[in-house]
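Z., the sequence and structure:
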Amino acid sequence: MRCLALAKAVRLQGMTVHFVCREHSGAALDLIEVAGFALHRLPILGKEPLPAGYEGWLGETWQQDAARTARVIRDGVGETDWLVVDHYGIDERWERAMRSVAHRIFVIDDMVDRRHDCDLLLNQNLPSEKTSYQGLVPPYATVLLGPNYALLRDEFRQARTQVSVRTGVVRRVVVFFGGSDPTNETEKAIEALRRLNPPGIEVDVIVGASNPMKERIAALCADLPYMHFHCQVDDMARILAEADLALGAAGVASWERLALGVPSLVTAVADNQIENMRQLDGLGVAVGLGVSRDVTEERLSLAIGNLLSSPAIVSAMSEKALGLVDGEGASRVVDRLVEMAA
């Protein structure tokens, strides 16, 4: 989704964008084509044992993947000013191999755990003492850090002009834990809210098309008149703009909530979200609940109940959120891409 946000912002500047993606199960590749971008699909092979860890996400060895991707660019794209890399399993070896087909390389990262051969790197998470790329990128590389560069779709920038600091009275809650929600935090949130059964509150429950539990979640929502089920929405900004509180993961969707001033309860559903969750909590724009395996329905119910009875805290969270992310990050990144390509 963040690459789609970047692609749409780049297209507004008259540039042509191609996507190269592996056809993994659950990959929402149709969203790319619906948005009007050229999509080059890499097949799932499954003929050889894959490397352990994130590198296995490539679907083949990095050498094979780099060769296949380079061939796609040479034969199907042509001269490429910027190659944008957003993949946990890719490092400097793959990137160096792509220098023959791209003038410049732009890496989007949030792990700070491997070396990159790039000209530009973006980590849109909140900087900390752990966010140092010294020795991980070439000395000439430009590094962009922090939510000032958060890659949000234009709909969030537009919706931001229509929102204000929340009063703190919670009447509408949004539940969204990402497109697939592999740890099924959505069902925990539904159960926590069901236990509270707060009067006068409406709940929007959002899942992605790749969520394996979507039919069960839809059935749970159908049993509760104040729960409204949504699958693969295309108006997330509107839904969040109308919300007084959100429950979600401490990942990239955090910037969408903050840009629209939505106070939130956040869970770290992956190790790379833990530091982000802690910082969001420390800044007073969200309440960090912990790592998903430790977050129970009881803990969720208690945390939600505490905020429902503390409107002053909720309002203060909203004000701080609006001050942290302004929704202009994609434009800033595009400006840098254009500047560096000149």
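The longest helix spans residues 62-77. The two ends are 27 Å apart (CA to CA).

Let me know what you think.
H.
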